[in-house]
Amino acid sequence: MSASDKTFINFSLSRISQSIVLASLISAPALAASDEMLSNTDFSNGTTGWWSSGAELVAKDGEACMDIKRAGSNPWDVILGQRGFGLEEGQDYAIDFVARANKDTAFTALIQHNGAPYTQYFNQVLEIGTEPKAFSFKFTQDQKSDAKTEFQFQLGAQKEAVLCFSDISVKGKSFVIVNKIPNIRLNQIGFYPKSEKIAVIRSEEQQPRVWRVKDAEGNHLLTGKTKIFGVNAASGETVHQADFSALTTKHENLVLDVDGQTSHPFKIADDIYSELKHDALAYFYQNRSGIEIKPEFVQRPNLARPAGHVPDVVSCFNKTDDKGNKWPGCDFDMDLTGGWYDAGDHGKYVVNGGISTWTLMNLYERSQFIEGASEPFADGKQPMPEAGNGVNDLLDEARWNMEFMLAMQIPEGSKVSVPLGNQQENIRSLKLTEIDASGMAFHKVADEKWTGMPLPPHKDTQKRHVGQSSTAATLNLAATAAQCARIWKDIDADFSAQCLTAANRAWQAANKRPEVYAYDNFTGSGPYGDLELADEFYWAAAELFITTGESKYLEAAKASPAFLAAPVGDETAKGDLFWQDLSSAGTLSLALVPSKLDQATRDKARAKIVATADAYSSLMTKEGYHIPYSAEQYPWGSNSNLVNRGIFLTYASDYSGDSKYMQALIHAMDYILGRNPLDQSYITGYGSNPLKNPHHRFWAHQADANSPKPAPGALSGGPNSISFSDPVAAGMKGGCVGQTCFADEIGAWTLNEITINWNAPLVWVTTVLDEHRLK
To answer: Which molecular function term from Gene Ontology is one that the record holds (predicted)?
Structure first.
């Protein structure tokens, strides 16, 4: 699922390879033998540094407590832990802590390797009661040194109780492997001949440094001096910039040399994104549900797999949820076979499927209505089962999920139970109301509980349910189905009519039930909660008006506070396009697609898009890494802000004829592909230091050597300094800022997740860049 606002607790993630890599920002000396290896041992800084699963962790007065209401059947179903240290062979270690509970119970204290094969170096099953009890242990690491270990209290498979811990300490010599990040950071693929070419150099020097671009034979092609930027607030570094844009001839295997240090190799060529755009689109085929993924359509044979969830026939959740609310289920089944898996799990969502499908279809529509734009992925250009069927391959991929979203629409006369209005503040006693949900869309279909890892979709045995219907999902269906209807009108008239019927039904249903909000009633999926739906109403009205020309839809759009909304483009990122704010999608469509909208209003929409692009572009001078994004704290899925901003930058170039906006988009991609404080390419398979371990249950090689490494072309969510809700990120809280809060670890879902709504704009921007090439 999309990373944004996901409450993601996976009991099995204690058994996934994870580590903190932020320490690689600087070289750290080995710790002395008596040094404390844990942080925040007295909880004086709240829960910073600690992670938990299975129950909420609350810190108060130097003590942290977990109220365990569901203990589960395994010790690791409930965990309190901390990682980020190692054990050195032959060294002695001391463990101390105080524990108590509100009743007699037991738990396990352990230190283990935090990944397969999960070797345990220390393990004690302990009993406690209502009085605080101090524990003290010593042990010698008699196995090989291990830089990736974690300390855990495993509290599951015991009584439901409140357990509290204080004064937790693990002392000894931590075994640390330091990975020093290169000081020169640049796009690790390369640059277009006519594009601006900037590298960022981490340096405390107060005088400009000499740089040289050298070819494979060591010849100096261009020489200059760095520009001192100063402190980059988003990373806490002092940086210089080297601008070698004057080098415009094509070359392979170039390096940038600064003070005797050399960069990763790069090229200057016209095909920078020619392969990446295909791999980015292939992400969707490889994450299809309900179809065999065949070897002839993937980059490596081991990426092929049997079909998952065939058939995917489900009904409403009919159990008591984790908050104690009884859900009565419904008296009908839905065949929801197909669609895309949202992210690294096996959930499928209408809300996130909406923006993803819209983005792919919008890329196609751009080619129809922007003069000089090329048709993206013409039939037969993309390896996929539908290639050669006479239909554009991009549309074939979009249709795969569009048909799933259509199937999520509730049949006429069907009744379901929902919580009406915002009851999020009173989730332990929801007031469920049975409604006629005809025409609404179910929010999601997913596993009842989070599955372990690795787990290919065809091996998933969890019971699956649809989540409740929601107004947000219904409006996502209305908007995308309306867009579908006009695109397929001359391609497949029957499918176009099906989409239009569904869009109209969904619009009517949403207006009848405008306050049915998503509720996370089973734990094997994310909530995708959204309490502000004005943007979805505007977006759906705009798409329906464009397709039908009916005045009622234009009146609804104009009456909306979101009418002609566009992102502000400042440090707040307010209005940026993402699944929870879709108002600008309506504006983009009204500006692009010919309709009955008067020309003055259409021109106003285009002017707002250009103004947004101007605001985005102006931010580059404020950023040490010269990107159209300025913030000291980075949100979950920060990389998606950059690629989605690329859509506005492209349309601004289309409407103004000014290539400066494409230059700004190129700078955003430079950051994505390595010009960042971690020297990290955030795309699998691309760059000298590519993303390797995204959070994914099939591409799970880090957790299981028998699972495949990820396919190339998947975009990570990237740095996240706001939501520290996975075990890896929790260990980084307080120790990183903005652009540095990232770990390429499979268990770091708030940092390293991959999703359909991040890869869709990656397809979009790499395709237009490959078309444009700054000609």
So the answer is: cellulase activity
Domain presence at residue 11: no
Q: Tell me whether strands 464-466 and 313-316 are parallel, antiparallel or unpaired.
A: parallel
Place of tokens 């019971």: 463
Q: What element of type H or E holds 475?
A: helix 471-487
Q: What CATH number corresponds to the domain at position 46?
A: 2.60.120.260
How far apart CA 481 and CA 379 sit, in angstroms, is: 22
pLDDT digits (tens, 9 = 90+) for 326-373: 999 999 999 999 999 999 999 999 999 999 999 999 999 999 999 999
Give the side-chain half-sphere CA count within 13 A for 124: 14
503 plus 573 within the same structural domain: yes
Nearest to 153 by CA among 94, 103, 112, 116: 112
What span, in angstroms and rounded, lies between the C-alpha atoms of 707 and 682? 21
| Residue 5: per-residue pLDDT | 33
Whether 57 is covered by a domain: the verdict is yes
Same domain, 213 and 191: yes
194 and 86: one domain? Answer: no
CATH of residue 313's domain is 1.50.10.10
3-state secondary structure of 230: strand
Catalytic residue among 88, 146, 393, 753: 753
Structural domain count, the chain: 3
583-592 vs 471-487: helix crossing angle, rounded to 10 = 10
- CA–CA distance, 745 with 673 (Å, rounded to integer): 18
Q: Kind and range of the H or E element at 672?
A: helix 660-672
Give the dihedral sign, CA 545/352/187/720: positive
Asked if residue 18 is part of any domain, the answer here is no
Clarify whether 365 is annotated catalytic: no
**How far apart are the C-alpha atoms of 677 and 672, rounded to whole Å?**
11
pLDDT attached to residue 84: 84
Contacts of 205 (CB under 8 A, 6+ apart): 228, 240
Q: What are the structure tokens assigned to 538, written together?
A: 């505007």
Domain limit, last residue, from 214, 246, 268: 268
Annotate 548-603 with DSSP letters as a single string. Answer: H--HHHHHHHHHSTTTT-----STT-TT--BTTB-HHHHHHHHHHS--SS-HHHHH
CATH of the domain at 213: 2.60.40.10
| DSSP letter (8 states) at residue 645 | H
Is residue 14's pLDDT more than 60?
A: no
Q: Which residue range forms the structural domain that includes residue 503?
A: 276-772
The answer to whether residues 240 and 294 belong to one domain is no
Tokens matching residue 673:
């592909």
The confidence band for 25, taking pLDDT boundaries of 50, 70 and 90, is: very low
Residues 6 or more apart whose CB falls under 8 angstroms from that of 729 comprise 720, 723, 741, 743, 748, 750, 751
Concatenated DSSP letters of 4-18:
TT-----GGGGGS--
Give the tokens for residue 164.
């509290």
Residues 154 and 241 in one domain: no
For the entire predicted model, the pTM comes to 0.89
Residue in 113, 465, 667, 695 annotated catalytic: 695
* Structure tokens belonging to residue 706: 């028998």
Claim to verify: residue 280 and residue 249 sit in the same structural domain? no
Same domain, residue pair 84 and 195: no
Residue whose structure tokens are 């210089």: 240
Peptide bond into 117 cis (omega under 30): yes
753 is catalytic: yes
Question: Are residue 202 and residue 287 in the same domain, yes or no?
Answer: no
Q: Quick check: is 611 in a domain?
A: yes
